[in-house]
What does this fold into?
Amino acid sequence: MWGNPVLGLLGLALRNLLRNPGRTLAVLVGVMVVAGTAFAGGLIGRGVDHAVARGLDRLGADLMVVPAGAAGELHTALVMGLPTAFYMEGERALAEIRSIEGVKAASPQIFVATLASSACCTGHLMLVGYDPSTDFTVTPWLRRELGRELAPDEVLVGNHILGVTGDPLTFYGTTFRLGARLDPTGMGMDETVFLPQEAVWKMAERSHELAEQPLEVPQGHVSAILVALDEGADAAAVAAEIGRRVGGVAVITAGDVALSVAEDLALLMSGLVPVTLSVLLIALLLFVVLFFAIARERRREIGLLRAMGATAGQSVRALVLEATLLGGLGGLAGVTGGGAVYGLFKEAIMVSYTLPFLYPPAGEQALLAAAVVVLAAAGGALVAAWPALRLTRLEPHEAIHAR
Amino acid sequence: MIQLYEVSKTYRTRGQSVVALAPLSGRVEPGEFVMVTGRSGAGKSTLLALMGGLTRPDEGTVSVMGQDLWSLSDAERARFRARHIGFVFQFTSLIPTLTVLENLLLPASFLPPGEGGDRQRAMELLERVGLAEHIHRYPWQLSGGQQKRVAVARALLNRPEVLLADEPTADLDEETEREVVSLFQEENRAGTTVVMVTHSTELVPLAHRHLVLSGGRVSHAR
Amino acid sequence: MVETASGGVMPMRCYWSERAFQGVAALVAFAGLAAFLFPDSGRGVSLAVTGAGLLMILIPLWLVPTCAMAGMPCNLSFKPGALLAGGITVMAGLVGVLQLRRLDAAGVERRVG
It folds into this structure.
């Protein structure tokens, strides 16, 4: 034990903690809950940011033009992939938008909500019909990953849609094949099926014969126009100009989406933060009580160590190390448990708060976990320093004979 | 070896003062074996604590081997104790989470490597007290008498010049009591100065000198 | 088997009923094994509890699996809850098996009945 000083001290600290396993466990659980909650909170915050950044980047659009009053539905479709369908006149709007200064590209999309299936495992899905000649959302991805366009009977699915390449997917009586699957974004695109708008119109036509309910898509109408701006263009100014020239529309910027998500996140945090703080307070209290009790129990032992030649600092070193170890272990258990519990309930939490989520890069997660563990360990050391300091102020004789 | 000059100690608790030791002067010569007896509360433990630098005297000076203990810093005094003074207490003083060997080696851990005892010295001492096969046992696995013998061996690890024992044989059976005292005598014959507090008047003749304390004063010295 | 509107096929209720029954039967067999391995009831029961926890995990994952759509209520609340409860039960059972063993080794007398 005395060969390796660090391992020796740590081993001693661990043995001391196991002297009273019930008590140690109680405090460990307290620290674990705090650490787990803090870690999950951090993960949520970073994960939401990551999803929004990825999702908006994949979308490629700086502005989205939808019928007036449909902004809210668009938001839930973008963020959660909840199916929605609304339409507005397309040709004139497109022409006007393309003529505005600062607009680099504009591409229409048609939204379709599929019929609910009576069987298990296929709920509503969101279909998006895009214009292959002007699209800048999925077409670049197709060219890069697939090296070709979609065939007339193929669809491109978001990452969460079930099935493998080649599987049949039937919408409104027309059967398509799963052509390719997008990378995860954490946003609504993961629950969306993309296909050329031509295929949507054909499907609508055939639905009168083949489907349980016909699909009506007014000819020449679109659901949204996605707009990409020139470098340096003022999004707000262009949005205002679009609103002026094309009446009866709502223009949403990428910033609006991010802001709206941030508001929903703040709502979640407003519940989570007080809970974390309350648990932190309880854990701190448990820690203080425990280490004051330990200091009291070990007073004679510490007096003895000083009689043998330990300095005041050396005699309480084990105590502080125990607290650090307890905090660190609690932090580690909390990060592991918190991460696991969050992983299990992630979907439920995010759906409740209408939040997108994508796990941040592994390095960032590791950093967050490490920060939580280090803070827990340091917190433990600080808390134990108080009773430890009081002990060092006693003379060895006092410590040995105190009642 | 040990010199006390006009040392006194008063304890103050909850507004009350208790005089543990009235101004007292005396010497313990190198190689002496001194027994200290007296009733409870006479100041015996306080006297030993003063000799070992475990408590500061209200007045007076305490010197061990010519060194004024209270002219040293806390750290220096701790190191001085580790090197030169061994303690044996009445109560079970082994650390419960350390094995017998680890307990024994504790005093060496407070000195730089090479200055204190080592594993070989620890094993020699354990052989002398008859506990060499128990090195990996924990204190709760030993009897009271065995624990006391380990504590005595521990006090001798760093070859201290002074051994201070506060009622080391209380709670021990006669046989173990004789073993412990004979260990002290062996060390004393080898040159260690021993000051031992005891309630057992039968042990007094084994020492060179006998001090009786009463009410914080020396009432009788042989 | 029954055909779904999307063209897939799915087993009917009696199939899932049999699967659930098989799970419980396996647990009963496991409990018998636990009683055989550990005649003292404390550790035997703890091991059986571990088996119950495993069953809690296996039901939504494999025996009577929930559907694959992530947004369904069973996947949002029931399945994660079942996995969490099952995991805790398994750990509690294991602690019982190990902890009670430690008491025995220390020679602590345990009351019978």
User: Anything to note?
Assistant: The first strand of chain A starts at residue 63 and ends at 67. The mean pLDDT of chain A is 88. The two ends of chain A are 32 Å apart (CA to CA). Residues 5-53+261-401 of chain A form one domain.
